[in-house]
TrEMBL record:
Residues annotated as signal peptide: 1-22
Name of the protein in its database record: ABC transporter substrate-binding protein
Signal keyword on record: yes
Lineage, highest ranks first: Bacteria, Bacillati, Bacillota, Bacilli, Bacillales
Native organism: Tigheibacillus jepli
Subcellular location: Periplasm
Keywords attached to this entry: Signal
Amino acid sequence: MKRFKYLAVIACVFLLFLTACSGEKKTNTKVKLGEVTRSLFYAPQYVALEKGFFADEGLDVELQTTWGGDKAMTALLSDGIDIALVGSETSIYVYGQGSKDYAVNFAQLTQTDGTFLVAKDEHPQFKWEELRNSKFLGQRKGGMPQMVGEYVLKQHDIDPHADLQLSQNIEFANIPGAFGTGDYQYVQLFEPTASIFEKEGKGHVVASFGEESGTVPYTVFMAKQSFMKENEETVKKFTRAIYTAQQWVAEHSAEETAEIIQKYFDDTDLDILTSSIERYKNQGSYATDPILKKDSWENLQNIMDEAGELPGDAPYEDLVNTDIAKKIMKENRRWQSLSFLSLENVTHHYFTKKM
């Protein structure tokens, strides 16, 4: 009886192998994905694309960069894209406007703020009070970088609007250039720009807003309710691919990740990409699973409320769907528990028994 069971398992594995190698071409499901900006902060997403994790799920993902949270949400709501990778605050803004087919967050990619405080001059023993009365180049009003920045400053008893010479009139894409050529003393920058500025002697990283602000659903994959209802299997496959990529990034070195995604940052040296990814990994910026936790959601609302940008109550139960992510992780644990039933292990077990 046992022999029959072992042979049956071997036969099943063999049939699966033959099916996978049969050469039958299947039409992949097209998914239009819009990212809010091109950022090293989104490394797991690029890994999913380059390692073929989406393709393995039968998805043909078309990536486009929208260059702005408002533009990403406009594209999502008008069906210009199917899924958006953007800050969770945008879903709260849409919900607050009374939209019936609002966006739902279903897979978290980053779980901290991704900006660093960069100073024009060196500050070996930096203290936050040094910011008082300084010329500070801030981010767009109402965006996550600016709200987190204000939240952190207030935690250090600094009123960003009263204690700083704060500028918020520069477009996101132009902020690095404006800081480099202007007389600003401090700025918030993402990687790899922060490291590039250090390498070129244009600035010095003196603090991390990600470390100061705690866990927050900073960048999340979201889709309209209608899309998720009509394409549940597609969303599930998408989430599975992202989870696979998250695990891959967590288990591999920063340099390995940098080499795979370098094509997305072809104007940045590999050493800068590597050090930037390492910096993000060290502070836990990359989520290791797609589940957006309730305490993180509440932290987000606190940050928005502190900045005066929270339009109203944003129920976790309405705006966050963790069911799909939980199913994916449960399936993964089940598969891991059965991994000993690989063809090699089964045949080895069977033949050593017989010998």
